[in-house]
Specification:
By secondary structure, this protein is an alpha/beta fold. The protein has helices at residues 7-10, 27-37, 51-61, 75-84, 96-102, 116-125, 140-148, 167-171, 187-191, 195-206; strands spanning 15-19, 41-45, 66-70, 88-90, 109-113, 130-132, 156-158, 179-181. The chain has an 8-stranded parallel sheet. The chain binds 2-keto 3 deoxy 6 phospho gluconate. Residues 18, 45, 47, 70-71, 92, 133, 159-162, 180-183 line the site of 2-keto 3 deoxy 6 phospho gluconate. Pathway: Carbohydrate acid metabolism; 2-dehydro-3-deoxy-D-gluconate degradation; D-glyceraldehyde 3-phosphate and pyruvate from 2-dehydro-3-deoxy-D-gluconate: step 2/2.
Length: 215
């Protein structure tokens, strides 16, 4: 199976904001603030009724944004995300049926895993960068450092429980190409329409150094 490699997308920024859109009207100003701050990749989780519409308008209207769909757990969501114009997909975990459904897509996918065996299986299937989720609860940066010895070919985008206090630990691991997180898009700021705060958080995240190499 040959799948598009997410690496070129992830090379663009060290952090992928994980966004929950409650009001569709927030989607465009939020995405603009993220792009302005230097985070062009935006994972919009399919957890709210307006999420797919949010993917659609961000993909269509926000220059410089790369809109992805997150929380993808079945084939119907894959199809709906593609139809909405999603440019990448992210899953929290990966069942065999979901892995099959990802096969043959022509956009990058970050399939979710939480153990060495799951990661090895997905790598065998051709997934080049894996979402490690829930990162903190599953062993955090120490886990990723430990498995880099026996499994140096694996690449990860850890997500779940990452914030300003620990993001540096993750980005210091060479197999971590980027991290995902919601800390750059706090719900209270979104509800208050404080997109300047989102832009500032994004700018701080975009400036974080990472050990991963992309050449
Ligand atoms: O919705 C999904 O597909 C998920 O896998 C969950 C998200 O990645 C986390 O909720 C983000 O984690 P936090 O940065 O701790 O908020």
């Amino acid at each position: 199976m040959s799948l598009p490699n997410p690496l070129p997308l992830l090379a663009r920024a060290p952090v992928v904001p994980v966004v929950v859109i409650e009001r569709l009207a927030d989607a465009v100003p939020l995405a603009r603030a993220l792009v302005e701050g230097g985070l062009p990749l935006i994972e919009i989780t399919l957890r709210t009724p307006v999420a797919l519409e949010a993917v659609r308008i961000v993909a269509a209207e926000v220059e410089g944004a790369i809109a992805g769909a997150g929380t993808v757990i079945d084939r119907a969501q894959i199809e709906a995300s593609l139809e909405a114009g999603a440019q990448f997909l992210v899953s929290p975990g990966t069942t065999p049926a979901l892995a099959d459904a990802f096969a043959g897509l022509d956009i990058p996918v970050m399939a979710g895993c939480a153990t060495a065996s799951e990661a090895m299986r997905l790598a065998e299937m051709g997934f080049e960068v894996l979402k490690f989720f829930p990162a903190e609860a599953s062993g955090g940066a120490a886990f990723l450092k430990s498995i880099a010895g026996p499994l140096p070919h694996l690449r990860f985008c850890p997500t779940g429980g990452i914030g300003p206090a620990n993001v540096g630990d993750y980005l210091a691991v060479p197999s971590v190409v980027a991290v995902g997180g919601s800390w750059v898009v706090p719900q209270d700021a979104i509800r208050a329409g404080d997109f300047a705060k989102v832009r500032d958080l994004a700018a701080a995240a975009a400036a974080l150094p990472r050990a991963a190499r992309f050449d």
